[in-house]
Amino acid sequence: MPIQIMMPALSPTMEKGKLLKWLVSEGQMVNPGDAIAEIETDKATVEVEAVDQGKVAKLLVPEGTEGVKVNTPIALLEGGSPGATLKTHVRPRVETAKLATGASPVRTEPRPATAPFPETAIGAGAVIGRSRLVGDHGPGPARAGVPMSGLTPSERVGSPKTQYIRSGDTDADPVAGWLVVVKGPGRGGFRPIYVGMNSIGRETNQRISLSFGDDMISREEHAFIAYDEESRQFYLQHGGKANLVRLAGRPVLSPTELQPYDLIRIGKTTLRFIPLCGPDFAWSDELTDA
């Protein structure tokens, strides 16, 4: 039975977009990862890729159609289980995103291949640009005599192992983005990412606590996500555990820059990275009234 390909949401606030160009034709076979269309929003033109295999049965929305609402069927694939009509979303290929004005691509080169280090040679604390992912394995007690309401998010959880980077003029680290569970235990849940360094693990003393029942995730420091407000960039780093952290299917062996809507796999859990901060916004910006 047919698989409906739906208009994707390319940002948390996107409600509709323009189907700029089809990159496939009716009758063509597509596989997961194949580019199938270019979608234009008010901020960018993004090439999107299939997540299912099948033959393109029908292109439902013509090229150049504006105002296509999110979750509207835009194409049909032949495939799926008999007697059922499945719905699936294409996903953005962030490395091909371009400014809608036609300026130079934001990121046109493919993600560099991960260095071919053996699993036993994983290092930690490497430096990328101006951001260093810092792991402090000493104690980190909360400030004595300070009520819970006066503590930063990293101090409220007790004695985390991670030494957090503080933003300059803020008393508490604000949210910089989110991780949304799209597959595995806890599907549909989410966790905030704070400015600075965020440790990821199952325990509640982790800044990003994935306490959804996935026992393949280490209790503490399975991975780290850092948001560097100076460069306005996010980085993912492994925690040196036996179960590798994967980004877009590739093992993360050194600190790696995250791109919007990247898929991160830890254990049996797949997470979608949703940024708030970045080139267009940081908490240090002076905002005018809406």
Write a brief caption for the model.
The protein has 290 residues and is mostly beta strands. The protein has one helix at 153-156; strands at residues 2-6, 16-22, 29-30, 35-40, 44-49, 54-59, 65-69, 73-78, 86-89, 91-92, 98-99, 127-128, 131-132, 175-183, 190-194, 196-201, 208-209, 223-228, 233-238, 245-247, 250-251, 256-257, 263-266, 269-275.
Describe the structure.
This protein is an all-beta fold. Among the domains are: 2-78, RNA polymerase II/Efflux pump adaptor protein, barrel-sandwich hybrid domain (OB fold (Dihydrolipoamide Acetyltransferase, E2P)); 175-275, Tumour Suppressor Smad4 (Sandwich), CATH 2.60.200.20. The chain contains 1 helix and 24 strands. The chain has one helix at residues 153-156, and strands spanning 2-6, 16-22, 29-30, 35-40, 44-49, 54-59, 65-69, 73-78, 86-89, 91-92, 98-99, 127-128, 131-132, 175-183, 190-194, 196-201, 208-209, 223-228, 233-238, 245-247, 250-251, 256-257, 263-266, 269-275. The strands form 5 sheets. Strands 2, 4, 5, 7, 10 and 11 form a 6-stranded antiparallel β-sheet that branches. A hairpin with a 3-residue loop joins strand 4 and strand 5. The protein starts with a strand and ends in a 15-residue tail after the last strand. The relative contact order is 0.13.
